[in-house]
Amino acid sequence: MLGLARIAEKGPLVAISLAIGLLLVASVLPQFIPLLDLVSLPLTILSGAVMSYVCLRFGQQAAFQALFGGAAVLLLMSIVSHGNIWQLPLTGLMVWLPPALAALVLKRTVSLELALLLIAGVGVIVAFIVQLNAQAILDYWQSMLDLMMARAREQQSELFADEEFAERLKLFSVAMLRAIGVSVMAVAVGCLFIARSWQAQLFNVGGFQKEFHALKFGRAAALVALPVIVLSMVTSFGWLDSLALVLIFLFCLQGLAVVHSLVKQRNMSNGVLVVMYAFLILPHTMYLIGALGLTENLYPLRKS
Known about the structure:
It is built from 14 helices and no strands. Helices cover 83% and strands 0% of the residues.
């Protein structure tokens, strides 16, 4: 992957072309080759990472040229293809803009905490917008589900024709709706971290590791987040659940930093990290690591 950073080093124009190419492969080719769906998300994140790298290396002017130039190219390609003219450029901006802004903040302040808080803010805004339009989104998903069910009955498919299965899909749709904000945040964090690690490998070996191991959002952030998370557990407001997910993910990042730092400080086996990341496929693991990160702001666990 470091080869992508070396290509981006040739200048903003080359980097924009690379980011557009990766996004097009991720967005368009799976329509023709379904197996490419498996690599669609990684390619999308790499596209955002290239754009973030442009911001980290070349600054604000190059960043805006890259963002709006890239969106303009995607819009032109959408018009030429006679498809939905807004889908590609909006996808590009959704993938590129949050990590790019965070990268600019990181470049100017050299504060990973501020950069991640900005991404969390974007996650909150997205979650709020989604909740404002929740019923329309759910109605659209329901219409798609009804279409699937109708086709299943025609083909006598027992799985999709089962009413209990359909009810489970409805519940899953609500859960997915509440996770959109944190999903946007997770992609942006992935883009930023990859870009920062590229920069460190090329110009400051070990720099990103030190930066990540020291990640700490502070007591004030923890005291703001804690009541929101507790309220989400005892109430049933969709927007509060979405906000809590963003905050839990934010402090999960600090929890990961705590574990990484402790493993290094105490010369523990890297197998600890392997086990931790393996368990992250279970949703409740994120809550546990988030609780660790939240607690560490109140009761420090790492050596300074």
